[in-house]
């Protein structure tokens, strides 16, 4: 971005997909302290975003949709945000909000009064909200909130300049063409965004952090601020954006309270269970060095050692118990969520069997997963709490089906 017009230096935060009140389905065997920390992690991560804004003396924050996990947002979550927004007001920080498919304006909730530094975009049409600094129009911010959960119109294409502000920012909660694994709400193309002549596009909806375009215009998905399951691994956060002398720069800032990670361990050549546990402890230490709690799935790879041969079906649960016992009292706990065996056992007679090979071929050539799962994805409960299946999910399903098939055939041969 380069302007010949006189510009005011601006600093702002771009965040999205806070998903306050996320239920964290599927977490089991958790001590109360660990569960409470994970359950509260979306709130703590959001608080970290607002603290960052204050520390960086930001002029404003852009929140690009799905602040709440449900359209029927809880009073607790609303009051939490109100408290945070009041802190921002005390520091002269404005807040610009669009609501997305999870927290659309068609929900049923107890309304509260927001502080006057909070500017919420309506669901009726694209709106422009002006930001003034030092008495001058410094930026025009354009956005749109969802009136209901499913919005399939290309609202991004409707965002155009309407003022002579030196900085123009578009906010949209939607799906860039080619993205998979998410509902295609408010779909748009990169060309649609370029046509809008914005300087910066503050996107939301996709939970994976992505810089779609670094300049002319800058187009960014910050991802969600807190992982909620094993499909959302790695650091999560927001973007700190600076506009100085007509130049726009941005930097990712990690804010997540609890990490979700997958660790792969090659156990080829290990002879004893103690060696496996030692390797796992080393992996745990690498996560502990980050200084944050983490939920970790351990994936075992390499050749299958003899101590993990048949007859050891319950050993994974025993290992889980060992590691859980050590982590119960840790503030920065490393919680082992699962142990996944992806080791390569030596080929048995069954695996060389022509019938088994034919079944595997049929399974890998099967192309209709999406049709079979369509009814599930349309179910109201799934639409509220689940995420669309993608190619990675299909590969996982095939791998698990192969293991199950092999196990059942071995059982029949006994």
Automatic annotation (TrEMBL):
Domain annotation Calcineurin-like phosphoesterase: ranges: 11-208
Protein's name according to its UniProt entry: Exonuclease SbcCD subunit D
Species the sequence originates in: Bacillus haynesii
Domain of life per record: Bacteria
Pfam families (alphabetical): Metallophos
UniProt keyword annotation of rRNA processing present: no
GO MF annotations, alphabetized: exonuclease activity
Keyword set, alphabetical order: Exonuclease, Hydrolase, Nuclease
Keyword check for Nuclease: yes
InterPro entries membership: Calcineurin-like_PHP, DNA_Repair-Maintenance_Comp, Metallo-depent_PP-like, Mre11_N, Pesterase_YhaO
């Amino acid at each position: 971005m380069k302007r010949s017009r006189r510009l005011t230096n601006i600093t702002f935060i771009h965040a999205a997909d806070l998903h306050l009140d996320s239920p964290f389905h599927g977490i089991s065997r958790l001590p109360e302290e660990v569960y409470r920390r994970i359950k509260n992690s979306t709130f703590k991560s959001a608080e970290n975003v607002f603290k960052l804004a204050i520390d960086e003396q930001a002029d404003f924050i852009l929140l690009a949709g799905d602040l709440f996990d449900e359209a029927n947002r809880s009073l607790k979550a609303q009051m939490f945000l109100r408290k945070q927004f009041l802190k921002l007001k005390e520091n002269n920080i404005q807040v610009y909000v669009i609501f997305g498919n999870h927290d659309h304006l068609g929900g049923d909730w107890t309304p509260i009064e927001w502080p006057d530094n909070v500017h919420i975009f309506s669901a009726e049409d694209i709106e422009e909200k002006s930001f003034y600094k030092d008495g001058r129009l410094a930026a025009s911010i354009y956005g749109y909130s969802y009136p209901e959960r499913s919005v399939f119109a290309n609202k991004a294409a409707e965002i155009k300049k309407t003022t002579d502000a030196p900085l123009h920012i578009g906010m949209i909660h939607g799906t860039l063409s080619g993205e998979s694994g998410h509902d295609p709400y408010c779909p748009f193309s990169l060309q649609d965004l370029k046509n809008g002549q914005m300087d910066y596009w503050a996107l939301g909806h996709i939970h994976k952090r992505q810089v779609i375009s670094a300049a002319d215009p800058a187009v960014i998905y910050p991802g969600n601020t807190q992982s909620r399951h094993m499909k959302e691994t790695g650091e999560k956060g927001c973007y700190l954006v600076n506009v100085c002398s007509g130049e726009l720069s941005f930097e990712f800032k990690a804010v997540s309270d609890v990490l979700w990670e997958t660790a792969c361990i090659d156990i080829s050549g290990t002879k004893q269970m103690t060696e496996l546990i030692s390797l796992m402890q080393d992996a745990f230490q690498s996560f502990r060095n980050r200084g944050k709690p983490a939920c970790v799935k351990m994936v075992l790879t390499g050749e299958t050692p003899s101590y993990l041969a048949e007859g050891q079906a319950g050993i994974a649960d025993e290992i889980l118990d060992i590691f859980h016992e050590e982590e119960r009292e840790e503030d920065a706990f490393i919680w082992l969520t699962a142990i996944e065996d992806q080791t390569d056992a030596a080929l048995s007679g069954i695996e060389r069997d022509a019938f088994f090979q034919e079944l595997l071929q049929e399974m890998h050539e099967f192309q209709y997963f999406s049709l079979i799962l369509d009814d599930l994805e349309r179910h109201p409960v799934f639409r509220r709490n689940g995420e669309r299946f993608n190619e990675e999910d299909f590969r996982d399903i095939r791998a698990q089906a192969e293991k199950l098939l092999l196990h059942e055939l071995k059982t029949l041969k006994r």
